[in-house]
Specification:
By secondary structure, the chain is α/β, with parallel strands linked by helices. It has one domain: Ribonuclease Z/Hydroxyacylglutathione hydrolase-like (Metallo-beta-lactamase, Chain A), CATH 3.60.15.10. It is 27% helix and 32% strand. The strands form 3 sheets. It has a 6-stranded mixed β-sheet with strand order 1-2-3-4-5-6. Strand 7 and strand 8 form a beta hairpin. Helix 2 packs parallel to helix 4. It is globular and about 35 Å long. The two termini are 16 Å apart.
């Protein structure tokens, strides 16, 4: 399996990385608008609706954009976050309450989980974010 990775942006105003192979794609964080994200995915021959999941590292606004969360729910894209982050997302974003109710907001702990064909394991990293901050293997 050939894996590709592209950082769509890593700034104080937005963060997002996409990882894909020939059959599927996942994103890490969703800190940009749907328009910006869509344009950048289209340049890679990908689109939001084909994502097998979005992994959330933490709840800071440069990693999670309200309009992008809403778009993910509309496109039925699963959102994965750590148990500690879930409550903050649900309390702060109406779309995450809807995602929870639809089964699209999925939590992970210390165990490996699947997002499409990708095997993922979250691990905690130090950062000043409510609910914690997580990296992924």
């Amino acid at each position: 399996m050939d894996l590709n990775i592209r950082v769509l942006g890593s700034t104080s105003s937005g963060n997002c990385t996409v990882i894909w192979d020939s059959s599927s794609a996942i994103m890490i964080d969703c800190g940009f608008s749907p328009r910006y994200t869509s344009q950048n995915l289209e340049a890679l021959d990908l689109d939001i609706s084909s994502l097998s999941g979005v992994l959330i590292t933490h709840t800071h606004s440069d990693h999670v954009k309200r309009s992008m969360l809403k778009k993910l729910v509309k496109e039925q894209v699963p959102v994965f976050c750590h148990d500690g982050i879930r409550e903050g997302l649900v309390n702060q974003y109406r779309s995450m309450r809807k995602a929870r109710d639809l089964g699209l907001l999925r939590t992970f702990g210390k165990e490996e989980f699947l997002s499409g064909p990708f095997r993922v394991r979250g691990f905690e990293v130090p950062h000043d974010s409510t609910g914690g901050c997580f990296g992924f293997n």
